[in-house]
């Protein structure tokens, strides 16, 4: 994770022993362990929530088109598409 070798770890532990002393070192270790555990738990909860939200945001499936009774196979022959209804007819075109 941090690519710390045995020598670097030993140096860190010696510095921690000098700074905190032998009586407080186990307490500091427990506190750091609890903090890391809470951080991992919170990050896992966030990851699960984001995954749930991404799964919930999938677009709904569109049901197959039904025939409108016009007699055409795809049901698109007799009606004007919704976007074309609002446009005036072009010059020379009858509606």
The stretches of 5 or more residues where confidence is low (pLDDT under 50) are: none
* Total DSSP E strands: 0
What's the SSE pattern?
H
- Between the first and last Cα atoms, what is the distance in angstroms? 71 Å
Major sheet summary line: none
- The number of helical runs is 1
Percent of residues in beta strands: under 5%
**Which structural category do the helix and sheet elements fall into?**
mainly alpha
Radius of gyration: 34 Å
Helix content: 40-55%
Query: What value does the average pLDDT take?
Result: 77
Shape: rod-shaped
Structure description:
- This protein is mostly helical.
- The protein has a domain at 24-58.
- Helices cover 54% and strands 0% of the residues.
- The protein contains 1 helix and no strands.
- It has one helix spanning 6-56.
- The chain is rod-shaped and about 95 Å long.
- 0% of the residues are buried.
- The mean pLDDT is 77.
How would you summarize this macromolecular structure in one to three sentences?
Helix content is 54%, strand content 0%.
Please tag this protein with its features.
single chain; 95 residues; mainly alpha
């Amino acid at each position: 994770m941090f690519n710390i070798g045995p020598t670097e770890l030993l140096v860190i532990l010696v510095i921690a022993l000098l700074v905190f002393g032998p009586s407080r070192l186990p307490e500091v270790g427990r506190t750091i362990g609890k903090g890391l555990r809470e951080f991992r738990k919170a990050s896992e909860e966030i990851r699960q929530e984001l995954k749930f939200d991404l799964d919930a945001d999938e677009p709904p499936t569109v049901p197959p088109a039904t025939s409108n009774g016009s007699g055409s196979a795809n049901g698109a022959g007799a009606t004007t598409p919704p976007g074309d209804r609002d446009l005036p007819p072009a010059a020379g075109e009858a509606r």
